[in-house]
Amino acid sequence: MNAVINKDRLWESLMQLAEIGATPKGGVCRISLSDEDRRARDLFCTWARDAGCDIRIDAIGNIFARRPGNDAAAAPVVTGSHIDSQPLGGKFDGAYGVMAGLEVVRALNDAGIETAAPLEIVDWTDEEGARFAAGCIGSGVFSGHRDLNDALSLSDAEGTTVADALREIGYAGDIAPGSIPFKAYFEAHIEQGPVLEAAGLPIGTVIGAQGQRCFMVTLTGVDGHAGTLPMAKRQDTFVGTAKITVALSELAATYDPPAVITVGHVRVSPNSRNTIPGRTVFTIDSRHPDTDVLQRMEADITRICTDIAKADGLELQMDAVTRAEPVAFDPGCVDAVRTACRERQIRFMDIHSGAGHDACKIAAVAPTGMIFVPCEDGISHNELESARAEDLATGAQVLLDAMVKVAG
Amino acid sequence: MNAVINKDRLWESLMQLAEIGATPKGGVCRISLSDEDRRARDLFCTWARDAGCDIRIDAIGNIFARRPGNDAAAAPVVTGSHIDSQPLGGKFDGAYGVMAGLEVVRALNDAGIETAAPLEIVDWTDEEGARFAAGCIGSGVFSGHRDLNDALSLSDAEGTTVADALREIGYAGDIAPGSIPFKAYFEAHIEQGPVLEAAGLPIGTVIGAQGQRCFMVTLTGVDGHAGTLPMAKRQDTFVGTAKITVALSELAATYDPPAVITVGHVRVSPNSRNTIPGRTVFTIDSRHPDTDVLQRMEADITRICTDIAKADGLELQMDAVTRAEPVAFDPGCVDAVRTACRERQIRFMDIHSGAGHDACKIAAVAPTGMIFVPCEDGISHNELESARAEDLATGAQVLLDAMVKVAG
Q1: What is the ipTM for the molecules in this complex?
Q2: Given Cys at both, which of A175, A390, B242, B403 links A242, Cβ 3.0 to 4.6 Å?
Q3: Chain A nearest CA to B129, separation (Å)
């Protein structure tokens, strides 16, 4: 088979897409269902139509772009990712998976190759979770992890719901999420970590993903005047938050290196320099590839929060907002990726994903695999996120070969 | 002298004023130069005019309401405070001093008493510092601690300057700040601390105020993905902020009990639950009544920030935004307050102020004294801030007697 990825075209598409929501330091701010997200969606739809695809939108705003096969009855072989970003995100996280899918279709068109099963490119709604306090909304609804109506009624900090936002940007579709059966799903993504780069390898065949426990914690104490209330009489929720954060950072180091714990979102109230904070809300994100270890970490985290809140006289509320179990990808899909590498003599290694991805949700309803490519210094969720055009093209080539192999 | 404070009228005025910007838990949100501040200023001006006062506004928005005396050449004896509040502040902080001044004028009117020197009630602009990152703006400009043009060009988080905000609410006056010489200045205020309540005394004669050092700290590290970047490779600014906050809390406890250190304002960036924070900005507020101790605390604070930033691989920027030296009030004014208490057989104690007040600025340009009354549980900068009508009336009576004694 001689369909070959066009490295420069793939790079050019990524750079054009990155102009939408571009930030000063070379990243993108393309918050889910914002006007920037709409413009990026519009551009993707235009490009996909130009490449001969039919576009359908489902009720949670997922976009499906289908390249017909010659077996009209066959379920599609699907690829994709997301084009929303973190508030200060990079050009490749998510966008690469969607543009790689587009490049697969364009390369097959160039080569005049028709597959038996249709191919389909998908842009999943709100993978990042930066706006509605829940990630993987589109793939989560599609795969039945999340109820459609619950997802539509999630609201952002301004009180705008997902349903409102979808209508505003014109992406409230009519087909039922999950109604399209997949023959298989592949997702290409930058690694977002330092492993492939350190190993000097262009491809990671992803065999599974870390599990995740994410908590929203609220500490309530008593506001007070910063000049007059003696230290011993304070119920300072930010000092409590600081103690918990330091303890969690030390806790993570007591587990195996893949264990990570992050306090990434913090809101201090009233947030005035001369008032002792009477209320602090923050998130705790913990991850590990082993369910048992993840459970032990959760118990430790709960104990740390409880003990510190009690010692400091603070009221503690702690809610689990995400409990994602570790995922094992489909052996057939993983093998299709490995075989594609071997046939082109591309060096690869098996790898676990540290991040959650849409593929982790889809794995529950379709045979799923992922392809990782290296990114510079392992940096992601950062404007400085960077990847090499050669590696991105190599990943897309492996994706093309694996998809065609499965589609026939 | 038989001018007697009307306890119920004073209370009623405080309660009416507290309706402007009222919060659900019984506090007020009357941010400086907001529409709520404007409405409160308008109400004060109406009441002061009804009590026979002439209103003048200076170029930084300070309001002066003068009750004429029979010696037209005499400098006024002045009292007042501020009617702006913290974002979640109480009904009495500041408002009490202005309403007590109004009640002094009303009680003298009722008794038909004319003083030799004029009496004047002042509402100082933006004491709280909750909006423009600097407190005591009005009294600071009046007393020459702060340049008028610098103050007018301070801007809030939305980029609105003090000058713009004054024009918007109609309080950009034309008289030059500081052009009114004061014979003396007295300020009545709730203690905002637990000392008077614990001692069971209705009046504190304030002999001076704690000095203050306030710093704005910025830690810069590297944003990163919360799932994929190993703990050992992180440059997490929120963990750095947490370590500094815990260390400062421990540091404060190593000094004498009046030493306080507070981290009250914190901004985490990008503030997303699955991104390691690459930048955190926070404030450190430290106070002590002794200049030497304050200097030692500053050196310790600087060392803690420097050491932790270095150990965690973070870039540190640290700016002193406030350096207020301890203040000693005028012995003559302090004695006038003590004498007023003795003559009415009111029990009192000498006290240091833990908070900064407009009086601390005015002390540099006029003989100054302060009168503290207890507040419930020492709670202030809090919606639950509370004080007893009896104590507030006692404080206003002492204020009246002291002012009349000095005014002649």
Answers
A1: 0.74
A2: B242
A3: 8
